[in-house]
């Protein structure tokens, strides 16, 4: 059975810059940072990193009816708004959404940590479950984003929620690609979501991987930079509409790019430490599946979060997998590490780069770490011919994922 | 001590706030499920909100299940309040 070609026909975002793809892109192309100091976190004993890139506050009451909002924590809310935007962008019809041939794959690191806090704040002190609202569990469950998106938008196809922390969105996109390739679904809404919470930043803080430049939020994280000091967590959601190439063409959809290959491996070495050979294997697997030679790759969008171990391993891995002159950059300096949303929000920016034929540089990369200079690190915005690109995302737990994306010229 | 009218007013106020309802549509004859659009999950939350507001336990599941209209709810709460006060 020949496999279907899979293309991206819609984009939706709720990012640390606010609601909408346009807001995200405008700020990225302006070289802005969404990182701020979280002064209210100073009350948390032992937390050294008081930094985050949260989604700016907004009033969801005007955007979604109460009956769907009541079971959504912040991350499910972001995912639903991003999914709505992606559907509109792709011009999908109501008929397509309810057909059973449109599915959803949206992951997150966990359920909503804000909802966990609300629940356990009441539950733990006196072991009391009374006064708990019925919507709480639905905010905490692992597939909260995917389930709420289906409910809110009337989607009746396959529902998946790959949960793998920082590769949740990348794996969701990879899964959606497989679903459409094999003909199980014609359209998949894919991506991820996460929300800023001190317990999440605390995880990175505990393993000494979080930035502590609390007095200089706009200049951290600093991927690939000699003076980087760690991750800054962000929140938001990115959703991509993946579609069967033939049906997309038939309905005259705008095509942002084609997904050619998906590498998804575990290093089976260490639960927290990155592993260059495994990272390279993810990229190589993606290129082999795509039938693309490393020489054909025009740009690599790095996962690079701004940790010494991670940045160095990834630079070495890129050097192993593709030619060292290929431009490489990371978007974490702009939006922080949006964890479960990272793969999707970053892919949205990457697709725009392919449209504009411009490389977004790594924000805050001033003095490159010499160990990372085994690849071509981009630190200023530049014009570049790009057709085929690699998108990396790696996660705690030894997960390494890569996608090969190609621009389709109309 | 809260009068009957105050109780009725308070019930409308807290449920309108919780379920984002228009108070003018919450007259005595309004049915909770058909007219106001509440469902089984909302029924759970309604109990949570009313228990918190009136500081009394709503444990009579059978009586709760029989509530159809706002007036049924008012009467249920008034009865409970009187029982508690006596």
Please report the number of helical segments of chain B: 4
Whole-angstrom Rg of chain B: 12 Å
Question: Helix coverage percent of residues of chain B?
Answer: 55-70%
Pair with the biggest interface? A-B, 11 and 11 residues
Overall strand count of chain B: 0
- Percent of residues in beta strands of chain B: under 5%
Strand content of chain A: 15-25%
Number of strands of chain A: 16
CATH architectural designation of chain B: Orthogonal Bundle
SSE order and pairing:
The complex is a heterodimer of chains A (410) and B (86).
Chain A: E1 6-15, E2 18-19, H1 21-29, E3 36-37, E4 51-52, H2 66-69, H3 74-90, H4 94-98, E5 102-107, H5 113-126, H6 136-140, H7 144-153, E6 159-160, H8 168-181, E7 187-194, H9 198-206, E8 236-244, H10 245-250, E9 257-266, H11 276-290, E10 299-301, H12 308-321, E11 327-329, H13 332-335, H14 342-356, E12 358-359, E13 376-377, E14 382-383, E15 388-395, E16 399-406
Parallel strand pairs in A: 5-6, 5-7, 10-11, 10-15, 11-13
Antiparallel strand pairs in A: 1-2, 1-8, 1-9, 3-4, 7-8, 9-16, 12-14, 15-16
Chain B: H1 4-19, H2 40-54, H3 61-65, H4 70-85
Helix pairs in contact in B: 1-2
Structure keywords:
heterodimer, A: 410 residues, alpha/beta, Peroxisomal Thiolase, Chain A, domain 1, 2 domains, twelve-stranded mixed β-sheet, two-stranded antiparallel sheet, 16 strands, 34% helix, B: 86 residues, mainly alpha, Non-ribosomal Peptide Synthetase Peptidyl Carrier Protein, Chain A, 4 helices, globular
């Amino acid at each position: 059975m020949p496999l279907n070609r899979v293309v991206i026909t819609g984009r939706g975002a709720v990012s640390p810059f606010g609601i909408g793809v346009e807001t995200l892109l405008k700020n990225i192309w302006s070289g802005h940072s969404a990182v701020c100091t979280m002064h209210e976190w100073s009350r948390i004993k032992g937390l050294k990193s008081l930094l985050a890139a949260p989604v700016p506050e907004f009033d969801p009451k005007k955007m979604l009816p109460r009956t769907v909002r009541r079971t959504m924590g912040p991350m499910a809310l972001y995912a639903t708004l991003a999914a709505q935007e992606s559907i509109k962008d792709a011009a999908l019809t109501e008929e397509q959404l309810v057909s059973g041939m449109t599915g959803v794959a949206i992951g997150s690191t966990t359920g909503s940590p804000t909802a966990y806090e609300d629940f356990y704040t009441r539950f733990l002190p006196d072991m009391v479950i009374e006064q708990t609202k019925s919507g709480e569990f639905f905010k905490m469950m692992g597939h909260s984003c995917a389930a709420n998106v289906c409910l809110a938008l009337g989607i009746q196809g396959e529902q998946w929620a790959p949960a793998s922390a920082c590769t949740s969105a990348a794996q969701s996109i990879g899964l959606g690609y497989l679903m459409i390739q094999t003909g199980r679904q014609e359209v998949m809404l894919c991506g991820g979501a996460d929300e800023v919470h001190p317990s999440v930043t605390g995880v990175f803080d505990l393993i000494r991987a979080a930035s502590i430049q609390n007095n200089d939020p706009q200049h951290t994280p600093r991927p690939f930079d000699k003076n980087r000091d760690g991750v800054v967590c962000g929140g938001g959601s990115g959703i991509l509409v993946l579609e069967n190439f033939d049906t997309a063409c038939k309905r005259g959809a705008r095509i942002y790019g084609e997904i050619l290959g998906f590498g998804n491996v575990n290093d089976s070495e260490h639960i927290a430490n990155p592993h260059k050979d495994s990272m390279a294997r993810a990229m190589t697997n993606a290129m082999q599946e795509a039938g693309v030679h490393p020489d054909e790759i025009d740009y690599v969008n790095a996962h690079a979060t701004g940790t010494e171990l991670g940045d160095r391993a990834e630079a070495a891995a890129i050097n192993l997998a593709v030619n060292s002159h290929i431009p490489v950059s990371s978007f974490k300096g702009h939006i922080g590490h949006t964890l479960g949303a990272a793969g999707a929000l970053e892919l949205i920016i990457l697709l725009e780069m392919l449209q504009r034929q411009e490389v977004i540089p790594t924000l805050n990369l001033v003095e490159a770490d010499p160990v990372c200079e085994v690849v071509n690190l981009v630190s200023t915005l530049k014009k570049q011919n790009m057709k085929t690109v690699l998108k990396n995302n790696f996660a705690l737990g030894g997960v390494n994922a890569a996608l090969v994306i190609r621009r389709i010229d109309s | 001590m809260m009068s009957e009218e105050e109780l009725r007013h308070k019930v409308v106020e807290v449920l309108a706030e919780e379920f984002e309802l228009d108070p003018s549509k919450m007259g005595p004859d309004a049915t909770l499920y058909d007219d106001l659009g509440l469902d089984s999950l909302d029924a759970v939350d309604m109990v949570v909100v009313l228990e918190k507001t009136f500081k009394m336990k709503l444990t009579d599941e059978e009586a709760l299940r029989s509530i159809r209209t706002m007036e049924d709810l008012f009467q249920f709460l008034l009865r409970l309040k009187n029982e508690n006060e006596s």
